[in-house]
Predict the structure.
Amino acid sequence: MPANGQVRIRFFSDTHLGFDYPIKPRIDRRRRGKDFFDNFYRILNGSADSNIDLLVHGGDLFFRNRVHPKIIDLVYGALFEFADRGVPIVIVPGNHERSKLPESLYLSHPNIHVFARPMTFPFRIRDTQVAVSGFPFERDNIKGRFRNRLDQTGWQEAGGDIRLLCLHQAVEGARVGPVNYTFRSGLDVIRFQDLPDGFQAILAGHVHRQQVLTDRRRSSRAARRVIYAGSTERTSFAEKDEDKGFFDITFNPNGADQWEIGSFGFKRLPVRPMADIIIDRNLDSRELESFLSARISQLDQDSIVRIKGNGKPVDTDIKQKLTVEFLKRMFPATMNVELSSDVRPARRRPAGG
């Protein structure tokens, strides 16, 4: 008989730690890597202070599979410290880690659980049995292999008052990007019809936009809800207008020896504004400085800025002026600046090359 009360789970994903975080930078400029770590710490610290019973990470903890040992220690050290407070953590290895997290003694903490293979982790939260099933990111033909991978987790035999499925995959209906590209079919997409009944929620990473997918064709409430937390930071300009954050999910007993989602709310994290400065093809290179100065004065001083063309060829003289030294002189040190491919200066070939 489930206990009265609630079970609270915090779900976040796609932290991409280590992005733009050089260990020995060759150029003195603001880096975005600290932004990613700051939101990571906000989630951990907030979870410790919010009576969270279980923390779930949906994959792409790191920004790639090979990261510097210092970054590994920063990430795992924070997870270890959090786990030492008594709250279990579940992590799904994502595609950026190539389905396997870097090894470390930190991961041996009894409250840190990583899906190294398809499996189910059982947790006793007060008087409630919670079973969390999942498997690492599957690169080749997840559409055809999904049922097999799911069976390998042993989720049906594991039971549990609350059963969760954790994935780092694209699910049919998920949307991404400024033009709302929708995953509908393909070998890398899990079909909604293949998601089984029996899970109170399916927690998914990999897609960077926060969203909740439902399939109204299904009669079971449990199988219709796929929750994407999205990334915790804007990783590219394709996400420049997206909110970033995490989900808090509360499970309640429904009075019939069963548990269901009582509430789930998206909690926003602070992110820096992103802005485009568009170079018109008719702009004279002699006017570039005054043009940029006027645009910069209109921006938040904490902005991440992209300089790009308007779809037509940009004057070569303008491209040649957009050097690192020029940009450092024009933009305040509080901003990050990047060039779109259509405005980058052409690389000069060595003599005789």
About this structure: The longest helix spans residues 33-48. Helices lie at 33-48, 69-83, 142-152, 155-158, 288-297, 316-321, 324-330. The chain has two domains: 7-268, 274-343. The chain has a mean pLDDT of 92.
